[in-house]
Amino acid sequence: MFKSTGTDHRIENQSIEIFEIRPQWQNPTETMELPVAKTTFVKTQNCWKVYWQRADLKWHAYEPVPKVKQLREFLKLVTDDQHACFLVDLIQVHYADWVIA
Q1: Confidence (pTM)
Q2: How many CA atoms does the CB half-sphere of 13 hold within 13 Å?
Q3: Where are the domains of the chain?
């Protein structure tokens, strides 16, 4: 099993995607990104929609909690991962340094 080199995130428009960074299995000197979770802010609803990536490699609404009011709630869902959708048992998500209003 390859060891994760960490997690990171990208912000694009109103979406934040969290991903794991790990060595490629065919060439460990190169890294790859494995999607973990995604959230998108919907201004008209004043909420964050929560998504997870299924085996079809498409983002799907996280049905146990499809939307949250605050970004910190999204991060708690990912960290707690009560339904094993975000594969947090394989990675460690460290976002204590995020400034969340």
Answers
A1: 0.80
A2: 7
A3: 6-80
